[in-house]
Amino acid sequence: MFTADSSDRLIGTVQRFFSHKRLRANGEYTSQVFAIIAPYEDLGTEDKRHGLYRCYHPDAGRKLVYNTLANRTLVVPVTNIWSHVASQVQVVPGIQRECLMVQPLTRDYKIETDFIKISVYVEL
Asked: How many structural domains does the chain have?
């Protein structure tokens, strides 16, 4: 899961990892590992009305998304990955598309607003 410029959380699948090495201003090299993540599609405005978990506070962690990957990828530092999630495919009355319910698997669940934090569903 991750947040960007709002409190909305997205769910994604790690596609691959890579390492980037660069020269700092002080002449030393530093490297950083990144993940390429394909996010799942968020529910549309109409379908959000039928979402099973909309009545819970967002910080409870459970979220419903379409069981379809969005047509984009995101590059995210692995330091922002903080949890795997449990997931379950669900058919929700009132929503025509198959959905995926996700729940972070961390007891220390919180949203960081100063920078992006991520929780991912990893397919091996």
From this structure: 1
